[in-house]
Request: fold
Amino acid sequence: MRQPWQSSHVLLVIPIVLIVIITVVDQLVPADIHLGPLLVIAPAITVSFAGPWLTGLVGFLTVGAQAYIGWHFGVLFSRNVLVQLLALTVLSALTVIYCVMRERRMRQLAQVRMIAEAAQHVLLWPLPEQIGSMKIACLYLAAEAEAQIGGDLYAATPVDNGLRVMIGDVRGKGLSAIGEAALLIGAFREAAHHHTSLPTLAAALERSVARNLPELETEEELGERFATVMLVEISDEGHVTRILSCGHPPPLLLSPGSAVTVPVHPAPPLGVHGTAPGDYTVDVFSFQPGDTLLLYTDGVIEARDADGVFYPLTERAVQWAGASPEKLLHHIRRDLIDHVDGRLDDDAALIALCRTPDGHRPHRSHRPGTGLHVGGFGHGARSAPG
Reply:
């Protein structure tokens, strides 16, 4: 809170110096040249960086300088000088009023941002840096300029002998998609502990969406709401990892110097039509110590630059394949923002998971506020449908 105050005091030197210079120069130039009206520059500059009190102070000094000029030349009570004094007084008052209105607007905006950040933490609980054998980092970029949350979602839940992760993307973007994102996250956090396989977990999410989606649909969106979801099941024992895609982009498996797209057999997105557990395919791959699994939403790979070129995630991610999850997402975020020139057209989310080397697996801890609980973990999923 100190920095803006200190910056205002430093910048305050500029209008004060201008007042002094204009006042002094006006007394040195020929009598038929009047520089007093230029004093209006001082409050006009001050309003751009200062609050009402400092702006009022500069306005008072401006009026005082104009009065001094009039007194110096013996024309203080002339009609011309009185009109100039009145004009400077009115202008200074208007700038102060503007500052008051701007400060009120800024306080309202700060409160809205605070609420948005609180909502984000409730909806997307911060993931801990490490769960079991996994180092984790996550990144969320909302398409709405002032929003902190939108239609992309992620969640991670440690369960017996492993970890389950979900990343998803509901139709639409920004604030209008928050309701469905909250529905999916809540359903996953509960269902992940009650279903022993990914197909039964996906079917439970489908039932939850089908049951609650009509309450979120508007007449214009009737039958058009759906969500893509990727479910990941990582075992602490061995290197086998299972994934199930409901219309979601496949993840990247990063090793030092290489990036491979994990092959998936996607099922329809959630909410399109009822899907039974036997309709899902679980894909299995080896997730070795030191590898990084990168999950993402289509807002990343569909981000376009000014020429309409999609963001080449695989080509860019391989450059930082050996980095930690946190540094990897830091590089991708900076590169992605540069690619789209600072403006995303859709929400984007990424999760990076790095398996620590064997023998360096810390005990799982439950940090307050993460919403992580121990539950059942089954190995009934297979690489064939169902």
